[in-house]
Amino acid sequence: MSRKSVKKMTESTRPSHRSLASAVLKRTAWFSTCKPETLETLLAEGQVRLLKRGEIMTRRAEPVEHLCLIVDGVLEVSATTSAGKRHVVRYLEPGQLMNLIPVLDEQGAIHDAVAHADTVVLLLSKALVRKTLASEPELALAFMRLLCLRARLTYLNLAESSLSTLRARCARTLLHLVDPYGMPRTDGVAISLKLSQDEFADMVGRSRPIVNRELKQLEREGMIRITYSHLLILDVAGLNAIAVEM
Predict the structure, then answer these.
(1) CB of 57 closer than 8 Å to CB of 7
(2) Which of 113, 117, 175, 177 is deepest in the core (most CB within 10 A)?
(3) Contact at 8 Å (CB) between 76 and 121?
(4) 217 in Cβ contact with 206 (< 8 Å)
């Protein structure tokens, strides 16, 4: 995270935010092997920040000074070409880490990161991360596994984007929202993440009119139900079958 970006943030001094940061840090899988005193040090030396909706946390290629743990809210991670074409890589939910690679390799940010809603984050400085890794070797292994997982997903997504139909890509994008944002209901799985038509199209990587036609077809087939900025998945098994189509 750039120093300029950090200065623009509003630091939260409300105890509820720091208490929430403590709870999220202690239940996050990547830090599960850390000693209790290590977690307390991370909380004491880390910075709890509140990003208002639409506020920029990092810009692509800018220097990064902190590892970011999402505490509450949603962080939108995207990339934009010089021609203005945007692709949303992911919406990060609480418990996820942002800027791990730039903190470790000391290069610029890989993506743009913007608060999709009011979002609370815990910022851990590079010096604090290095100190913690030196005293907690299991944490280093956990970070390695996380990087490997994300690399596998990246390679898989590249292959699928090249070989799959748009219909399959829409189905996979919907399914990717189920685990972090799905809320089971009697009639299906409601996606709690509020997305505009443009934002969903940016996730798929195609224009809004084309993606909307595919979504409407899935709705006619009884796979999903679309309401204003919200999605209800009615047939997860059906979407899974569509997602593997080539």
Answers:
(1) no
(2) 113
(3) no
(4) no
Neighbours of 67 (CB within 10 A): 24
Inside any domain, residue 85: yes
Number of domains in the chain: 2
Q: Which residue has the tokens 């569509």?
A: 242
Residues spanned by the domain of 52: 3-148
* Cα distance between the two ends of the chain: 39
**Residues 57 and 80 placed together within one structural domain of the fold:** yes
pLDDT bin (cut points 50, 70, 90) of residue 246 is low
With tokens 């999903």, the residue in question is 224
* 1: confidence class by pLDDT, cuts 50, 70, 90: very low
What is the phi/psi pair of residue 192, to 5°? -75, -20
12, pLDDT greater than 90: no
pLDDT for the residue numbered 245:
79
Q: Is residue 110 over pLDDT 70? A: yes
57 backbone dihedrals φ, ψ, rounded to 5°? -95, -50
State yes or no: pLDDT of 178 exceeds 90. yes
Give start and end residues of each alpha helix (H) in 57-136: 100-105, 126-135
